[in-house]
Write a structure and sequence with these properties.
Structural class: alpha+beta
Strand order of the largest sheet: 3-4-5-6
Number of strands: 6
Number of helices: 16
Distance between the termini: 73 Å
Order of helices and strands: HHHHHHHHHHHHEEHHHEEHEE
Helix content: 40-55%
Largest sheet: 4 strands, mixed
Radius of gyration: 25 Å
Strand content: 5-15%
């Protein structure tokens, strides 16, 4: 076999060249979109990097299909900047948008991540990205052989993976050819580990996309901006809200990378839950979504967002806009998890609100548990004893995200009048807030018909 100049690895991030992160990609893509060149010291190398990631066309002078889609997505969510703290949002959008476009690079990253997370804990892989780097080199396959296969056949744990590959191979009694390969791998890894910070962030994005919105809460709370292996700077509340808004939009759209929860981990349970997969192909057990533990709700209730002027654009018959295939079962699972958690939060909020009125507090009822056709979820009371009917609308994203309200709920609201209100709960997985939208809705909400009933009558 001819000797290669480079020691191969299985790629698990968009930039396996000289770039270390995504912090200057947005301004570079903007410059290229306007017909210019990347504003860096070595634009030729940066063009090669951007092409390698799939953002530029073959000519290196124009945006590819992925680049043309991802830049507006970054702009829409306000992460089209060079802020390293927004790198997670940029990478998550890259995975989601790339999957929509059936981009082969994104598909390869997702496939490989799915494969290795069946053998090792995905959280441990993210936290120990120095060991993840070693694993990526061991998984490179040459003439059908991969050292990573040896690890898995021996049921090795991630803690067994070490940069001291040569000693490990000697202990296994492998051939001299394998020894020579171990030396080359060790040398390659020593020079590449500094780029692992970006790889760790990209793997967080892959895990969120693969595991689902509810699991995202645990990932976002446990990790953050990586500074070194097992060293993280927590995401800010604004960064968490942006990430949840991205997921909220894609989950409500039917998901992009099978946004169903095959792992659902509560933030409080991350350390206690063993999510390591024992056998190949075995999926982890589901762990219920848990609402953040709040005892003082005094800062939770906020004002309603200002109404926006919405401009809608019809998609005509000749439109080239790619339509997503919606998996309604998976969307229902994700929405059900968030909806149930939101109603639990609303019950706690109502009990806190009426804590000084024990005779009213005792009468609060979570009616939708027994009958979900009433048009509201909770029957409660104002502090003066008058009835209060709450329809709970929850989201992991921002307060001003769109939500659905049914014709039945609108009819019930019309019949109950001012006693009916929507309790809109946002940022449910991180720092929840809510606002009350009381009937009538005409001056508060823009209601757009989204479905029609068809009969043969």
């Amino acid at each position: 076999m001819a000797q290669s100049r480079y020691t191969p690895e299985v790629r698990l991030d968009p930039f396996a060249t000289s770039m270390r992160n995504f912090d200057d990609v947005s301004p570079n893509l903007k410059a290229i979109r306007e017909g210019g060149a990347p504003a860096v010291n070595d634009p030729t190398q940066r063009v090669a990097d951007l092409r390698s990631a799939g953002f530029l066309g073959d000519d290196g002078k124009s945006l590819s299909a992925l680049g043309a889609k991802i830049l507006p997505a970054w702009e829409r969510f306000g992460v089209d900047n060079d802020d390293i703290g927004d790198e997670m949002s940029r990478l998550l959008l890259m995975v989601l948008v790339g999957h929509d476009l059936e981009d082969s690079r994104i598909g390869s990253y997702v496939s490989y991540w799915r494969a290795i997370r069946k053998f090792f804990s995905p959280f441990e892989l993210i936290d120990s990205w120095d060991k993840l780097y070693v694993l990526n080199y061991l998984d490179a396959r040459i003439e059908g052989f991969s050292p990573g296969d040896v690890l898995r056949s021996n049921k090795a744990r991630l803690t067994d993976v070490s940069i001291d590959i040569l000693s490990s191979f000697k202990a296994l009694g492998l051939s001299q050819t394998a020894m020579d390969g171990a030396v080359r791998i060790e040398d390659a890894i020593k020079g590449k580990v500094p780029r692992g910070r970006h790889r760790a962030t990209f793997c967080m994005a892959l895990e969120i996309a693969v595991a689902g919105p509810s699991s995202a809460i645990a990932i976002i709370e446990k990790f953050g901006v990586p500074r070194g292996p097992r060293v993280w700077v927590p995401f800010s509340s604004e960064q968490k809200t942006t990430l949840m808004s991205i997921l909220d939009e894609y989950a409500s759209d039917g998901g992009s990378v099978e946004l169903a929860a095959d792992i659902v981990v509560a933030p409080e349970a991350v350390e206690a839950v063993d999510i390591t997969v024992g056998a190949a192909g075995q999926e982890p057990d589901l762990v219920p979504f848990v609402v953040p533990n709040i005892t003082d709700f005094s800062g939770v209730l906020v004002g309603m967002p200002e109404r926006k002027t919405v401009v809608t654009q019809a998609v005509g018959a000749n439109s080239t806009e790619k339509k997503k295939k919606i998996d309604y079962v998976k969307r229902a699972k994700a929405n059900s998890l968030v909806g149930s958690a939101g109603e639990e939060f609303a019950i706690k909020f109502e009990k806190w609100r009426l804590k000084d009125f024990p005779e009213l507090l005792a009468k609060i009822a979570h009616v939708s548990k027994d009958d979900d056709t009433l048009g509201y979820d909770i029957s409660s009371f104002e502090t003066d004893g008058t009835p209060r009917y709450l329809e709970v609308k929850s989201t992991l994203g921002g307060l001003d995200n769109a939500f659905y309200i049914s014709s039945n709920e609108l009819a019930v609201a019309d019949s109950l009048g001012g006693a009916y209100l929507v309790l809109r709960i946002a940022q449910l997985g991180s720092s929840p807030i809510c606002c009350e939208v009381r009937h009538p809705f005409e001056d508060k909400l823009t209601l757009t018909p989204s479905a029609y009933m068809a009969t043969f009558a």
